[in-house]
Amino acid sequence: MNQPLLQWHPLGSLAVYAAAALLFAAAVIGLSYCLGERHSGRATGEPYESGLPSTGSAWNRVDVRYYRMAMFFVIFDLESIFIYAWAVAVKEVGWTGYWAIVIFIGTLMAVLLYLWKMGALDSGDADRTK
Fold first, then answer.
1. Three-state SS for 49?
2. What is the spatial distance between Cα 40 and Cα 18, in angstroms, rounded to a whole number?
3. What are the DSSP calls for 71-89, one per residue?
4. pTM higher than 0.85 for the full model?
């Protein structure tokens, strides 16, 4: 039997894809090294902080409120993906899907209300905003 090359093994196409990806990455890195600009200016080794001069040490502690707010953003952003997926399939899921999303959004609202009442969404002193 004369079979095509990539069908003799179930992972043949995956191996070819992985080899092509590695070859492409190596080519891009090699070209960047060969064609890249070499300079050693005064600010080359300094960290970039949005064009502002760096202040303080990198070992400064960051307040937990920033992490907490970022965590809430990621969690609620993920829920918006679930709601979007429901909106795309609303005709297929029917009333069962409707009541499931109502319960889901109700749970989100309860969690948001709980976080608000516990003060987890407060960003700090009221004097800072003035």
1. strand
2. 36
3. HHHHHHHHHHHHHHHHHHT
4. no
